[in-house]
């Protein structure tokens, strides 16, 4: 498809495929949520006396950072 801007032809990028619009974001959300919940639940299974609130907080923060780094562009 050509669109003329100030008399010069400009090409528009093709529309994304239905997979990229619908399926890929849903799969990324499912994978990210599952990873976040899994890491969060496993971080509190063996909560030692000396760690207190630091261990679950650090695990959740690192899991969230990993999710954003890996799945953020989707």
From TrEMBL:
Keyword set, alphabetical order: Membrane, Transmembrane, Transmembrane helix
Phylogenetic placement of the source organism: Eukaryota, Metazoa, Chordata, Craniata, Vertebrata
Gene: Aqp8
The name this protein goes by in its record: AQP8 protein
SUPFAM superfamilies xref list: Aquaporin-like
Main location class: membrane
GO terms under cellular component: membrane
GO MF annotations in UniProt: channel activity
Gene3D superfamilies registered for this protein in UniProt: Glycerol uptake facilitator protein
Keyword Transmembrane listed: yes
Localization per Swiss-Prot or TrEMBL: Membrane
Membrane topology label: Multi-pass membrane protein
Organism for this UniProt entry: Casuarius casuarius
A UniProt-annotated Pfam family: MIP
């Amino acid at each position: 498809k050509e669109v003329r801007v100030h008399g010069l032809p400009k090409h528009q990028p093709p529309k994304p495929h239905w997979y990229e619009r619908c399926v890929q974001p849903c799969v990324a959300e499912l994978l990210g949520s599952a990873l976040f919940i899994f890491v969060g639940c496993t971080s509190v299974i063996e909560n030692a006396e000396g760690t207190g609130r630091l261990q679950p907080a650090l695990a959740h923060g690192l899991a969230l950072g990993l999710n954003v780094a890996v799945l953020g562009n989707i």
